[in-house]
Amino acid sequence: MSQRTPNERIIFGLKLKQLRQKQKLNFADFAKITGMSVSYLNEIEKGKKYPKEDKVQMMADALGVNKKELTSQDLGKSLMPVADLLNSNFLNELPLNLFDIELTKVVEIIANAPAKVGAFIATLVEISRNYAMQEENFYFAVLRSYLELHNNYFEEIEQAVDHFTEKHKLPDEGIVLVDQLGNLLKKKYGYKIIENGLNEYPELSEIRSVFIPKSKRLLLNMQLTDMQKAFQYGKELGFTYLGLGERANTASLLRVNSFEQVLNHFKAGYFSAALLINRRSFIKDMQQFFQRPVWSGETILNLLLKYRVSQETLFQRITNILPQYFGLENLFLLRFVHTPAKGDFKMDKELHLNRKHRPHGNALSEHYCRRWLSTSLLNDLYEMQKSGRYTGALVGVQRSHYYNTDDEYLCFTLARPAYPSPEKNVSITVGILIDDALKEKIKFIDDPAISIRQVSTTCERCPIEDCAERVALPVVIEAKNQHKKILRVLKSLS
Fold it and tell me: Which of 96, 259, 464, 492 has its CA 20 to 30 A from that of 48?
């Protein structure tokens, strides 16, 4: 009977504590009655141990209940949310080891105040239902927290890329050719690359690639550019070289089965980005860029050409390198998708290092401030597309001063058409908090050519008056002001 699952040990421990406290027995009294040590009983209640049959009977006798009641999985109404949590296997799905948290510590928190924790869990479940939050939303949120905890830099993957590059004699500065990576996949790892492999499946027109494990076939979308193919090949090499077994077979995660899957896809993508943009070479590039006395958008565009990578890959490497090698830890990365036909802007990717920066994710379907470069550059791109002037990438810079605060960010943004979804445009932004560290590292910070704009988060929450860019009324601000008026009147009557 001693070989039990973690959840069975936890439930038994909670049940034992519940019944012991109901009898108003402290550990010393209970130990004396049962003839067991306090430390042994404490380990049982914490879910670390499960007693043998004879000891279960002794405990039941001491508590005045039958053994069946003591070993029942029913924790009663007050602990029902905790029981539901444990029986759902949710705790086992949590990647606690990534944050150096032991499962037993979580159990100890639950055991110390089970009713309060139960109410808290019930509240979280209710919130997730109200916001239509699904399992994958939780996993992606955990991944973001993990990346933020490590400043989005992983030395073990960087070293693996260095070894891989040296082993296969790949370029460590400049372009890593797509054919080099494709040949490695085919000759070294037995892949069969089907260039137009998704042509027969119109439903998959927005998916970049699909991997078929049994035949080791990689089916590619015919609309992929060479740089997009190179990134997909790099990811496949990452899965293989890093030994990442649990994965989805599509280029992006459409359905999530576990957190391990989410984490492995991140690692493979990190491997690919580091493979395409060598860290030592890129550090030199960023040093030269930051030492320029004036802002130059051409420098960023030239880096895209130098490494022949996408804007997302370039900006991802910026977030890897700046905190680790330049001491610029207060930064964020945002990706917005603009669908001109609908007129909406959706943030589909974000990362905040060191603290939560503005703007950030919004689950309330509000309208993001159009003064941020992330959205205004997308509007500029669309206007140029309508006039037939330009359909490539736009680059811009802005000092974004958040309204009524001391927070100001230096924001670099690239906007481009979305591929393979030409009816959409995408912008990706890196914003760095303007502080002493930034002023020391970036020489062009005071370039008068860089515009300074007051910004907010969303129109609904923005108190800025006479805003030409406003697309929605400040209803949240108005409601708060009305509430303050009511409170003032009530106070005057008291």
Answer: 259
